[in-house]
Design a protein that fits this description.
Blueprint lengths: L5 E6 L3 H12 L4 E4 L6 H6 L1 H20 L13 H25 L3 E3 L3 E5 L2 E4 L4 E10 L3 E3 L14 H4 L8 E5 L3 H12 L3 E6 L10 H14 L2 E4 L3 E6 L5 E5 L4 E4 L1 E4 L3 E3 L6 H4 L22 E3 L10 H16 L13 E3 L5 E5 L2 H7 L2 E9 L2 H6 L5 E8 L5 E7 L3 H13 L4 H5 L20 E4 L2 E2 L1
Parallel strand pairs: 1-2, 1-6, 2-3, 6-16, 8-9, 8-14, 9-10
Antiparallel strand pairs: 4-5, 5-6, 7-15, 11-12, 12-13, 17-18, 18-21, 19-20, 19-22, 20-21, 22-23
Length: 462
């Protein structure tokens, strides 16, 4: 039997890597985890957490406006960007400390270094050039924004990484992309008073979401004053006078703005990891190829989270980590369940969704019932805001099983989490119908839509 320095060596200190290292170490395994930057990964340091904090900050200007309709007189307001940046940094530093504390309490060895594979069971620590061995190596290094190097002037642009720590809040910005990151940041910057333009090559934002959610959100963004340009792309970014950016599009439009943000997807962090040396297979996008149990093609080497490009969500990486520990250290083979994952877009208004869109369901089932409600939420009746809430259930007519639930409106993400439990349990429309409403709430519409708004048979609405 070969002797190894560690039972488990984890490369990457994000949510999936930290959870794996902490759980294995708490079981008495000898564990090391290497991270070259900060613990917490994309989610804590430059993703979900700071983004949600900035979403909250960007909503206050509407709260101040709405207050008048409820009898409040709000005085002069002023936003200070450096204060928000500093508060964000304080919070993510606190969270990073909790990640470290959890590892320390479980007796995992923390290594502040880049780790590179030099063989199936061997890792080189770049800071000391030391070689260490491990029976199992777990790669959980996440991903990074696509740099879009083919775009002339891409070096003049920022990504979501830099957006959180800009030295000054720009007066104007162009964001290119139509996914959730682009949409969320367009709403954040607009809410903070920035003149915002979103450019997307498709006909409508959020291509993978239900059509009603896409249409409703795009209309709401335009009504707020966000300029949305579809079916166009940026072809060049040049430096203008005073450090401004001159943006040229394929359609021939020219925009001069303070910042340009590229939000064109994310790619796995697999460069310079020594994957080729160790013989680890990757796909065309550079993602590590794994089986149902997060095993690579090389025995003893595993990968999970965004570096595998399965589902790029923090809770998914954590779930994959727990399945990895259960399988490898507890002898109970468990594969990650990637079905019916509830998701949210923290736009304004939010989208919360779980299950199939109407378009997906129409391709998979012959006969659908679609229940749809669109209404002005109660809060808007006194504030005067015209924003609408949309709720939608997609149901298989044959067995009444709810295939998808989609919400556009305030706190949609919170509702999506609870709907995720229901759909995971195999809920039917009859279960919704016999559930008593909580009144007055927006979510009561989910259990009071008794008659289908329309049906879809063989892909056609009737």
């Amino acid at each position: 039997m070969p002797t190894f320095d560690y039972d488990l060596f984890v490369i990457g200190g994000g949510s999936g890597g930290v959870r794996s290292a902490r759980l294995a170490a708490s079981m008495g395994k000898k564990v090391a985890i290497a991270e070259e930057f900060r613990f917490g990964g994309t989610c804590v340091i430059r993703g979900c957490v700071p983004k949600k904090l900035y979403v909250y900050a960007s909503q206050f200007h509407e709260h101040f406006e709405d207050a008048a309709g409820f009898g409040w007189q709000v005085g002069e307001t002023r936003f200070d960007w450096p204060t928000l940046v500093a508060a964000k940094e304080k919070e993510i530093t606190r969270l990073e400390g909790l990640y470290r504390k959890g590892l320390e309490n479980s007796a995992a060895t923390i290594l502040a270094t880049r780790a590179v594979l030099v063989g199936p069971n061997t890792i080189r620590l770049t800071v000391t050039d030391e070689l260490v061995t491990a029976e199992r190596i777990l790669i959980a290094v996440g991903g990074h924004p696509t740099p879009h190097v083919d775009l002339p002037g891409h070096e003049l642009c920022i990504s979501s990484n830099e957006a959180f720590d800009l030295p000054d809040l720009p007066k104007s910005i162009v964001i290119t992309g139509g996914g959730y990151i682009a949409v969320e940041f367009a709403n954040i910057f607009h809410g903070l008073g920035v003149e915002t333009t979103l450019i997307y090559r498709g006909k409508q934002i959020l291509s993978r979401f239900d059509q009603d959610m896409r249409q409703g959100l795009q209309a709401a963004m335009i009504a707020k004053g966000i300029r949305v340009i579809c079916e166009d792309i940026i072809t060049n970014v040049a430096e203008g006078e005073g450090g401004r950016r001159i943006v040229t599009t394929k359609a021939g439009e020219t925009l001069t703005v303070d910042q340009v943000m590229l939000a064109l997807g994310r790619v796995p962090n697999t460069g310079s990891l020594g994957l080729e040396t160790a013989g680890v297979a990757v796909d065309a996008r550079g993602a590590i190829i794994v089986d149902d149990y997060s095993r690579t093609n090389v025995p003893g080497i595993f990968a999970l989270g965004d570096v595998t490009d399965r589902v790029q969500l923090t809770p998914v990486a954590i779930h994959e980590a727990m399945c990895f520990i259960e399988t490898e250290f507890r002898g109970n083979a468990v594969s990650p369940d990637h079905d019916l994952i509830a998701t949210a877009v923290f736009s304004q208004p939010e989208i919360g969704t779980v299950g199939m869109s109407e378009e997906e369901a129409a391709k998979a089932f012959d006969d659908l019932e679609v229940y749809r409600a669109e209404f002005r939420p109660m809060k808007a009746t006194l504030s005067g805001r015209q924003e609408k809430t949309i709720m939608k259930l997609v149901v298989n007519a044959a067995d009444r099983k709810v295939l998808g639930a989609h919400i556009l409106g305030h706190e949609a993400g919170e509702m999506a989490q609870l709907l995720g439990i229901s759909l995971k349990a195999g809920v039917t429309k009859d279960d919704f119908d016999r559930t008593m409403a909580v009144h007055p709430t927006a979510s009561e519409e989910l259990v009071t839509m008794y008659q289908p708004s329309y049906r879809v048979r063989n892909g056609q609405r009737i």
